[in-house]
Write a structure and sequence with these properties.
The protein has 256 residues and is an alpha+beta fold. The chain contains ten helices and eleven strands. The chain has a four-stranded mixed sheet, with helices on both faces. A three-stranded mixed sheet has the order 1-4-5. It has a two-stranded antiparallel ribbon with strand order 2-3.
């Protein structure tokens, strides 16, 4: 890249490590065929956007984009906040929420990296000027939270809220004798109902599987009802999952 160039849009999201739906990695060519998306490369005006083969050049007006160096790769890219705001042209609301959650995620365990952006920085990037997709971005921004550790945790939260259930607390700390013994992915602490997303690694790693069993037994002994959530619960079995969740929350509400 030239000195004036930097990654933007999809390429910048990948550089910063935020989640994306697979659909954004393909575009329609002149023959309406799905092809691999070219590399998104931006410049700040008045510099001219690249027309190189394999590159999708984007010109950004002054004041509409901050640029930073991603520390691991050393690549220049739009800042996390600018990247999020620019993706309003490509992503639906829930994907923008997951994207924003990843950027503002606060450290919750030792060794966690600092947040890449703040909610205030996302707001400033959105309000820097006229943004395409601004209505969807504003709606997504109202749902961005700092304590979601994964795209699937975000998706689970949005499914519960869309079903009319209260917004759950995220990565709720369970404290015993002054020590945090567990962080529950999503929780209704006043009812002691929690949700744990089970990724594939929980099934394929025997040690992880054993830890999960011991952890869930401990939480049950402490009075928690834990509902385990899988990818199929959030896709083809979403209705049944919502019914399970509502039944658990309602039962605990009556019990109290």
């Amino acid at each position: 890249m030239r000195e004036c160039e930097f990654l933007c849009l999809v390429a910048a999201v990948v550089a910063w490590g935020a989640p994306l739906p697979s659909s954004v990695f393909r575009i329609r060519d002149g023959s309406n065929r799905l092809v691999e998306r070219p590399l998104d490369v931006g410049v700040l005006l008045p510099s001219r956007a690249s027309r190189a083969r394999g590159v999708r050049g984007t010109s950004i007006a002054a004041g509409m984009g901050g640029v930073r160096t991603e520390p691991v790769s050393g690549l220049r890219a739009t800042s996390p906040a600018t990247t999020w705001a620019m993706m309003g042209t490509l992503l639906q609301r829930d994907d923008l929420v997951a994207h924003g959650d990843a950027f503002v995620r606060e450290p919750m365990r030792s060794g966690d990296p600092p947040a890449l952006a703040t909610t205030a920085e996302l707001t400033a990037a959105l309000e820097a000027g006229r943004r395409r997709g601004a209505v969807t971005l504003r709606e997504a921004l109202s749902l961005v939270r700092t304590r979601s550790r994964s795209r699937k945790e975000t998706e689970t939260r949005l499914v519960l809220m869309a079903a009319g259930l209260p917004e759950p607390s995220l990565n709720w700390p369970v404290v015993v004798e002054g020590r945090v013994v567990a962080l529950i992915d999503l929780a209704y602490p006043e009812r002691k109902v929690g949700f744990e997303y089970e990724g594939e690694q929980h099934l394929t790693d025997p040690r992880q599987w054993a830890r999960d069993i011991r952890r869930n037994e401990m939480l049950a002994d402490l009075g928690w009802r834990i509902i385990r959530v899988t990818a199929s619960d959030l896709a083809e079995h979403r209705v049944q999952f919502v019914e399970r969740a509502r039944a658990a929350v309602t039962a605990r509400s009556r019990a109290r």
